[in-house]
Structures are given as structure tokens and as C-alpha cells.
UniProtKB/TrEMBL annotation, chain A:
InterPro entries: Nop56/Nop58, Nop_C, Nop_dom, Nop_dom_sf. Coiled coil: none annotated. Residues 1-31 are annotated as: Disordered. Residues 132-246 form the Nop domain. It comes from Halorutilus salinus. This is NOP5/NOP56 family protein. Pfam families: Nop. One of its GO terms (cellular component) is box C/D methylation guide snoRNP complex. GO terms for molecular function: snoRNA binding. Residues 12-22 have a biased composition (Acidic residues). PROSITE patterns: NOP (PS51358). It comes from the Archaea.
UniProtKB/TrEMBL annotation, chain B:
It comes from the Archaea. The keyword Transferase applies. It comes from Halorutilus salinus. This is rRNA 2'-O-methyltransferase fibrillarin. Belongs to the methyltransferase superfamily. Fibrillarin family.
Amino acid sequence: MTWYERGTDADAVTEELDEGGEPDARDLPGDAVESGVFGTRDGYYDALHQATVEGARRRVDEAVDTAERDVINAVRTLETVGDSLNELDERTRDWREETDRVPVEGVVEGRNALEETRDETRGFIEERTPELAPNLSNLADPVLAARLIALAGGLDELARMPSSTVQVLGAEDALFRHLRGDAPPPKHGVIYVHPYVRGTREDERGSAARAVAGKLTIAARVDRYAGDLRPQLADELDEKMERIQGRDDG
Amino acid sequence: MTVGWVDVDGERYPATDGEKVRDERVVDGLRLWHPRRSKASAALVKGVDIPLEDARVLYLGGGAGTTPSYFADAARAVYAVEFAPSPASRLVDVAGTRDRLFPVFADARKPSVYAGIVEGVDVLYQDVATRGQADVAVKNAPFVRDGGRVYVVVKARSEDVTAEPEEKYEEVADRMEDAYDVDRTVDLSPFYDDHAVVIARR
Ligand SMILES: C[S@@+](CC[C@H](N)C(=O)[O-])C[C@H]1O[C@@H](n2cnc3c(N)ncnc32)[C@H](O)[C@@H]1O
């Protein structure tokens, strides 16, 4: 069958995609005109264009939402599991090795299962986040990219934020303390784990955080509105950081 | 409606007449089609002829729609197949700006899905950058009209990180012989490392 035998709108295209058929080199516009469904080839193309754009828009939006939710859930899982694992390791360090005298196999097994879940979850994030946000994942690592997306509540939301907000995402508590007048403003939120922030000496760290947040914000916007990978963004950040880290303290 | 050429800083670049979609430069009213931004442009700059004018094109691996947008400036109809949600979303945005660019959100390894939507084409262009690249081209051969031109971008490292790129290109070309007459392979350096385009005819 063909899409236009099912109708002439997006539903017809969607139905045809679900049903499928045998690939061949038919002259579909010619056949459609001959069968009288369309008056001209241009008329056929106009209808097909509207139908494919509209049909794809719907399905793609659903798929993007799902993909984004998966990444957000995964990064939250990673954090929870990571915290549990650290805590467990800390609390059981002293006696976990002494399985011969204390019945702790269950704890050891549980701990190893947690570790496995953590590694698998990280693998999932590393695979999926670059598909969702190639530039953000290129400038930050995919786990940090996913954390920023999760904290913002989605890529769309992240792309709309000013970079000053991105800079302190994840430092909400510190920000509220500051707004209450109890503390200085936070210099950085989760972007602290970015090597360019963490690796910059204390007195320049604020500048580093600002520079990193600025580029990550641009990366999120390119991902949201253009989608192509632009390696030059990383080069620009490298250059900027070289200047910041090269400043002498005098 | 044809691919033109513009001179910028002593270099010649392909360019098309169409609405701007990214941050590409516009020179003499034409959209600069940079060979580092698009493998098809790299192929054109390296002397490959892609007869797009008034052609019906099946484009596999449409990505975010950058290259498909240039194709659509010159061709009669471009069917762009993309299966990853994020790039597909941008592809649909771009298709909204081009009357004859038809987005197909589907897996190119399953051409039966879009059999009732894609017509017989004069050009098959493929840039899927994944394992099994040759198989994808062979499976989509029924859409290509007799004498139609086929361009398959091969990313050597998608297949095997250790093997020599030339061996990979040859392997893909061999497999393509199942459905096409392979003409030649053109590597895309210096614009893209470890990439080549295999050119064939149905
Ligand atoms: C290198 S990108 C294409 C870039 C695009 N050709 C351009 O120049 O603007 C490769 C694309 O192929 C897509 N892809 C890979 N395997 C595919 C398949 N089996 N079906 C459809 N798309 C596929 C990927 O999701 C990715 O977006």
C-alpha cells in the first residue's frame, strides 16, 4: 500500500509507517496523480510535506521526551546508588573482609550488586547523553551533562537559563543561605566537578566557573536548537581557560 | 536550483540558494556549504559529481538536517531518514523550512517501514556512521532507479577500530557489489579523517 491510499494527512503517514510494505522504485507522485487523489505532482509533494513534517514532529517529540526522562532517571539513580555505596563502604570497611568469622556475605553481595548497578547506569548515561546533548557532553563529561539537564528539569529548560543560573545549579542550599543574608554567594554548583573548575586555583576559581558555565550554556543552546556537534566550542573553552589559568597572582 | 561555487579567501566552496539554517556564511546571496561541516561538500570539493539538480534523493542518516538542507536546495525531492530522536527533532525543524524535504523518523535498516512513502530515487546518499554500513545500502537498493547514483560515506572506525581504513572501504565496496556496480572510492581527507565515500551505480 501507499500512504496516500490511507488518507492525505499525518495520520496516513503514521499508519503507513506502522504497516510497512515492500520497497520498490515506484513513481509515487505519478501514480497518485493518475489515480486522481492529487491533481498535480506539486500537489502531491505539498501534502506529503505537511503530512511527514507533522507526523514526524509528533513521534519525535514523544521519543525525545522519553529519551530525556531516561537520562534524568539514570543520573538520579547513579547519584543515589553512588551515595549508598560510599556509605556502605565507609561503615563496613573494617569488618567486610572478615567473612570467615562474621556472617556478612549478604552485605558483600549487596555491595557488589550496587557497584554493578552503578557501573551499568554510568554506561547507560555515557551512551545516551551524547545522543541527547552532543555539545554539552563534549564540553563536560556525559555524567555532568546529564546532571545539569536533570537539575534544570530538561534540556529545553537548561537552554533557556542564563549562564549565571547554570553556574550555581546544584548549589541551591548555598544560594538560599546567601539570599537570606547568611552567606556569600556560591561560586559554583555541580560544575565544580568539571576539571577546569576543580583544577583551577582558589583565587581564579570564580572566573573559571563563570567561563565554564558560559560555554556549557552555549553548548546546551546549540544542542537544543541546532543539534550538530561543534568541536570549536571545546577549543574556545580551552583557549579561555588557558588565559585564566595563566594569569599570575601578582 | 543547482549547486554553485563561491570564492572565499582564495578557496572555492560549494554553495546553494536557500534559506539559512545554521550559522553558515552567506556569500553573494548563496549559503556557503563548508567541506568541514558536511561530508557531501567535502566530496564535491574533492571532485565527486553528485547530480542533485532536479533529482529525487533518498538520504539515509539525516542527522540534524544540515546536509539534507543543502540537498533540498538543489533537488526535486529529498527523503531524509533518521532514527535517533534528538537529531531527528532538529531534522524536522529544518524540514519545516524546505518544501521538498520530507523527514522520515525510522531505522534505515528496516526500509520496509517507509516503502509506501519513499518513491523511486535517482540518488541514494548514505551517512549512517554505524556498523553494517554496507548492509544498509544494499537493503535500500530497491528504491534506486536503474542507473541511479549511490554515495555511501564509510567511517572506517565504525566498523573496526584496529583495521586499516583502506581495508574497510574495500570490504564495504565488495559488499555493495551485491546490489550495485561500484565505480570508485574517494577518501575525504583532509576534511574528514578515516572517512571515504564509495560511489556506485544501480
Ligand atoms: C554522521 S551523522 C549524519 C550527519 C548528516 N548526514 C549531516 O551531514 O548533516 C549519522 C546519523 O546517522 C544516524 N543513523 C545511524 N544509524 C541509523 C539507522 N540505522 N537508521 C537511521 N539513522 C541512522 C545517526 O543517528 C546519526 O544522526
